[in-house]
Amino acid sequence: MSLNKVMLIGRLGRDPEMRYMPSGDAVCNFSLATDESWNDKQSGQKVSKTEWHNITLFNKTAEIAGQYLKKGSQVYIEGRIQSRKYTGKDGVERTAYDIVGNQMQMLGSKNDNAPSAAPSYDSYTAAPPPQNNHHAAPAAASYQAPPPPQQQRPVADPPAPVEDIDDDIPF
Q1: pTM surpassing 0.90?
Q2: What does the alpha-carbon distance between residue 9 and residue 107 come to, in Å, rounded to a whole number?
Q3: How many CB atoms lie within 10 A of CB 18?
Q4: What is the chain's pLDDT, residue by residue, as a tens digit (171 residues)?
Q5: 66: which residues sit within 8 A by CB, 6+ positions away?
Q6: Alpha carbons 20 and 146: distance in angstroms, whole number
Q7: What is the β-pairing status of strands 26-39 and 46-58?
Q8: In sequence order, what are the beta bridge partners of 47?
């Protein structure tokens, strides 16, 4: 038995890049920053470290991310690690590790992530694309331009919060 599962909460380091494969499947790529901090035992100073993750989303999840996320948006991504080999400009073969997401949840306030006409859902789970070991990206010229946005129905305002909540909540 084996398990390849990743769960990340972070902020987008750049706006998502949308493209469409010749098959019509949507693909969205962006970088995600995760931070950790601790106090250095010797100096007592707070130390921070940022990790950058390359995220790839497919199909409906990709379309939602491309439409509603932007640089700085906070998001939860769940998926798997996938490696790919490439040759650098210096001729040296390298390995890159990407996160292929199959679940995304937008975090933070609506203003952080989406325009006011955003759908009322905060998460979307999609089946991952079919697996094959031929993930060589087609030339950029073979991608189609994204289709024009679809007309959406207005989303009803969420119900107003109840101000009369008991303090007996156990958490």
Answers
A1: no
A2: 9
A3: 19
A4: 999 999 999 999 999 999 999 999 999 999 999 999 999 999 999 999 999 999 999 999 999 999 999 999 999 999 999 999 999 999 999 999 999 999 999 998 765 554 434 443 344 555 444 444 444 443 333 333 444 444 444 444 444 444 444 444 443
A5: 16, 17, 18, 26, 28, 146
A6: 7
A7: antiparallel
A8: 38
